[in-house]
Amino acid sequence: MNKDILDTTEFNVLHAHDNAMSGSCSYCKSKKKGQSKRWGFRSHKTRVDDYEYMMNKGWTRCGTYYYLPDLANSCCQMYTIRLRIEDFKISHKQRKALNKFNRFLNGELDHKSKSMAEEVKKPLSKKQEKYEKILDEIVIKAVLDTIDNNIGEAKVAKIKEKIRTKKIKDKAHGDISTNAAIVLYNAKNLFKDKEPMPLSDIQTAIIKKIEEACLGLKFKISAAENGFINFKADFDLMTNVGKEVVKPKEKFCKKPALIPEEIKHAKSEEHKNPNNQYTKYFKELIPNKNPNPVHKYTIEIYPAIATEESFALFQKYQATIHNEPDETLESFKTFLCDSPLYDPKNPEDVKHLVPLNDADRKLENQGVWPKYFGSYHMYHRIDGKLIAVGVLDITPTITNSVYFFYDPDYRFLNIGFVSALREIEYLRNIKDNYCPTIEYYYMGYFILDCVKTAYKGEYSPSYILCPESYAWISLDAVRERIKEKGYARLAETGIELPEDMQFTIEYINKLLCEQVSLSEQDIIPLIGLNKWRVQIIEAIIRKLGKGILKHITWIS
Questions:
Q1: What is the homologous superfamily of the domain 83-92+296-465 according to CATH?
Q2: Which helix (H) or strand (E) holds 221?
Q3: pLDDT of residue 246
Q4: For residue 84, what pLDDT is reported?
């Protein structure tokens, strides 16, 4: 077969279907009425630049199967979401996850054998015990002042027994939290009003009473989304920095505590010496004063090939996280290893009709950056042990995060958060030093009201693809519209379809006559296939765009 045929993307016409196909939704399952509809086809060989073009039109892949959700007619609206890596701004929540990860590397968190981690216990200082005791008393008083004072001694005792005010487990400096609002929310029958107060209103009411009581402890009080009320110290409780406790009757001080001169000086010296400021892990994201962490964290880049090590990790992940203990090696390969992507510049890819089998490919670390574009596995290791694998498709301008699985024993480290941030930082480094064309980090599909995907919107600034104009729109600008309507045109009125997505009947007919389907027996013009098959191919062509059609070889 000539080189022109070998160097094209192959679409299988026998495995193509239109959006009339419906299946069970892996996101909402039985929670919503409706079905998941999508266009789809199989390809055992796809040029990386063609795949890049398809991703920009909303397509993605699972193994060798490509699909595009029909947002308007499906139960869940799966919007394509991406992030421009240069513009990424880390959030407070993400920084907390990374700081916790660093604390583990530094030996400040102890990994226990039962898939749990507890903070290395340090004896509380007398001052910290004093703070907790006084906070506990003030919180109890604030709670009782918030509800009916005539509720009876028995109920008061029961409320007091359930309220806990103590040091937050994952805080390095002894910040304190209380479950008072949650306790009060669960005791709904204690309110005077017929309708119980929302949890957020209860938090607000308690905080107001606390401020009236006057702590004078230099704490910043905030209501957490999970219902807790947090007290963040403006000083380090563990090292007894801060002023003595004042009497509760004094006015609550909202001004931040003054930082001693010796601490200011230490911080300024720290920033002058970059070697002390950061470890090599997440250099741009996590300040870490420890140049020699207790645990060594490394990443490795391998071709997307199944290994005993990665398969064992996948089995453990599926059984524990998704309750699917019957995963086979074949299903693992089909799902996360078999890839149709090939780089026309890679001679090993071009000379084969289909991608190489695992037995023919070399399983070797690619170093910092692979020589060719394609599908890869990013191995995350701690002290040499494989704890997570990220499945990445890398093209000239896009890196697509296809999937991620991890050791459930390390779930306490928010490893999903950490991996995404690690990949973003990795791509920033690659852009600066190896591949300046890399621009975007794709995170698959975003469903606003689905917990499995909603977290993707926290990586800011994110953009989602308008399903009608193919324009990329800021998620922040359209979040409320999606929340209200589900499916919606996201682009403003007046933004037209790009030229490569505008088709006429004449263009389609001409294309179907000129392009052919190859088989071992013969060559058939697409227009010569049965009518039902022609309609399916036409529907897929309209969703693919003109830019990819010149590279396609149709296979049957």
A1: Gcn5-related N-acetyltransferase (GNAT) (3.40.630.30)
A2: strand 219-223
A3: 40
A4: 94
